[in-house]
Structures are given as structure tokens and as C-alpha cells.
Amino acid sequence: MHLSLLQNTPLFVALFAVIFAQFVKIPIHFLMTRQIQWGLFTSTGGMPSSHSAAVTALATAIAYETGLDSPVFAVAAMFAIIVMYDASGVRYQAGQHAAILNQLRKDFQTLLHDLKKWPQMDGQEKMEELKTLLGHKRSEVFFGALTGIIIGIVTYQFVL
User: Fold this and answer.
1) What pLDDT digit, counting tens, does each position of 72-85 carry?
2) Domains held by the chain: number
3) Is residue 25 within 8 Å of 2, Cβ to Cβ?
4) Is it true that the peptide bond before 119 is cis, omega within 30 degrees of 0?
5) 48 inside domain
6) 41 near 20, Cβ under 8 Å?
7) Residues 125, 28: Cα–Cα separation, whole Å
8) CA 98 to CA 100: how far, in whole Å?
């Protein structure tokens, strides 16, 4: 039974889509900023959405294996829609809120420092900023989804 996991093509197609989408963020970022950021490989957010790539690659692979009329494809398609909606909606907004909270914290610290009401402490801890790149813009979700669909199609049309 455990060896059958190694023959689960939809699982491997989805995992490959995640890895590919995460990796391709690095050259895309370099083209835009002329800076290499290897940390993008393990970070959330950015172009393309690896979440979208994974769920659409999974749904595409399931469509190839079970057909568009199968209940399993229906589950995969709905799962993909929910994940992509969440990535471009709730998670994106959470990132926007984090950016505003970070600015409010900086402004508050500046105010306290300027009023000299903040006690001076040796080795004062630097406040860690909240992560602002949590979700995706709609274009990032779209290109992540397109990446996943293409990976699924290429796998089933040319590799298998």
C-alpha cells in the first residue's frame, strides 16, 4: 500500500508545481529589481502564486485521470477555487493590514522617542515587523493557476 503513494501522479504534479512556482519567483524578482533574493524560494506571496499553481496542477491531473465529469475532479476544482479566492482575498488583505500595523508601530515608537517618555534601555529589542507578503494580487493568482494548468497538461501530454 505505501508504495502506491510513489505512483500518485497528481500528487507529484502538484508538488512539482509548488517547487517550480517558488523557484521561478527568484528570476522574476531579479528581472524587476536587479536583486537576487534566494529567500523567495521559501516565502509566501509573490509572482506567481505557488498555492494556485499547486491546486490547479492537482485539479488538471485529476481531470486527466478521472475525467471532467468525476466527483473527484469536482472536489479538486472547488478546492482550487477556494484556495485561490483565499490567496487573493483574505490573505492579501491580512498582508495589507500588517503593512499598516507596522507603520503605526514605527510612528508610535517615533512619537514616544521624540517626547522622551520612552525609557532608554541597553540592548533594547528591535520589534520584529509583521509579515506583509501573505497573499497575492489577482494577477499573481492568475499566473499561478496558469502555471499549474500548463504543468498538468505538459505532464500528461508529453511526459506520461
Assistant:
1) 999 999 999 998 88
2) 1
3) no
4) no
5) yes
6) no
7) 34
8) 5
- The cell numbers describing 34, all together, are 536587479
Question: What cell numbers appear for 160 in the block?
Answer: 506520461
- The whole-number pLDDT of residue 16 equals 95
Question: Three-state SS string across the chain, please?
Answer: CHHHHHHCHHHHHHHHHHHHHHHHHHHHHHHHHCCCCHHHHHCCCCCCCHHHHHHHHHHHHHHHHHCCCCHHHHHHHHHHHHHHHHHHCHHHHHHHHHHHHHHHHHHHHHHHHHCCCCCCCCCCCCCCCCCCCCCCCHHHHHHHHHHHHHHHHHHHHHHC
Flag whether 102 is in a domain.
no
- Does a structural domain hold residue 130? no
Q: For helices 50-66 and 71-88, what crossing angle results, to 10°?
A: 170
Residue 55 CB contacts under 8 Å (≥ 6 apart), including other chains: 14, 76, 79, 80, 83, 84, 145, 148
**pTM flag (> 0.85):** no
78: domain range?
Answer: 2-89+135-159
Query: Per-residue pLDDT for 7 more than 80?
Result: yes
φ/ψ of 133, rounded to 5, equals: -95, 75
Contact of 10 with 65, CB cutoff 8 Å: yes
Provide the grid cell at 48.
Answer: 506567481
In a domain, 144, yes or no: yes
